[in-house]
């Protein structure tokens, strides 16, 4: 089964999540929606996700989903968000069409991780967040690899 992983990222967590998914899914490929609009021909399954910023995922990812919704709901698919909020489902439900959410084999939150070298112009936001975590003696946010690998496993079943 050929699986495409489409993501949008600002701080790097979604890219890292997509890379972990690809490492754990046989016959998979990755597409950064900001760099390329992937062709869905020949794709048997898809995983779509992105980082949540101000309660929203990237516009290009939303546009891609809207344009391809009728195809997406007919193939096995999963959705993910990367965010610090443990109530990730509210972001999945508010950012993806209901039909896509209801037909997904998985909808998951992978957590959040700050990757300074990938943050670019948003480095100041993440830096401020990290200072808050440190000031309040909170654990540094991180991705939950177990959740990522659990989603990958669902796509390795034939």
Commentary on this structure:
By secondary structure, the protein is of the alpha/beta class. It has a single domain (3-156), classed as 3-Layer(aba) Sandwich (Rossmann fold). 43% of the residues lie in helices and 18% in strands. It contains 7 helices and 5 strands, in the order E-H-E-E-H-E-H-H-E-H-H-H. The protein has helices at residues 13-24, 59-72, 89-95, 98-103, 116-119, 123-135, 145-156; strands spanning 3-8, 28-32, 45-51, 77-82, 106-109. The protein has a 5-stranded parallel sheet with strand order 2-1-3-4-5, sandwiched between helices. The longest helix has 14 residues, at 59-72. It is globular. It starts with a strand and ends with a helix. The mean pLDDT is 88.
In helices, the fraction of residues equals 40-55%
Beta strand count = 5
Query: Which structural category do the helix and sheet elements fall into?
Result: alpha/beta
Rg estimate, integer Å: 15 Å
Mass-distribution shape: globular
**Can you list the strand order of the major beta sheet?**
2-1-3-4-5
Salient structural properties:
alpha/beta, globular, 5-stranded parallel sheet, Rossmann fold, 7 helices, 158 residues
């Amino acid at each position: 089964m050929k699986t495409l992983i489409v993501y949008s990222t600002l701080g790097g967590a979604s890219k890292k999540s997509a890379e972990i998914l690809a490492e754990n899914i046989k016959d998979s490929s990755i597409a950064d929606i900001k760099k390329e609009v992937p062709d869905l021909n020949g794709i048997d399954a898809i995983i779509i996700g992105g980082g949540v910023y101000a309660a929203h995922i990237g516009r290009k990812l939303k546009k891609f989903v809207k344009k391809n919704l009728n195809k997406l709901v007919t193939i096995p698919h999963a959705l993910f968000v990367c965010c610090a909020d443990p109530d990730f489902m509210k972001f999945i439900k508010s950012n993806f069409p209901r039909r896509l959410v209801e037909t997904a084999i998985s909808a998951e939150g992978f957590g959040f991780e700050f990757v300074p070298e990938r943050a670019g112009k948003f480095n100041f936001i993440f830096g401020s967040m990290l200072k808050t975590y440190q000031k309040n003696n909170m654990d540094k946010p991180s991705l939950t690899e177990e959740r990522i690998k659990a989603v990958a496993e669902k796509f390795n079943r034939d």
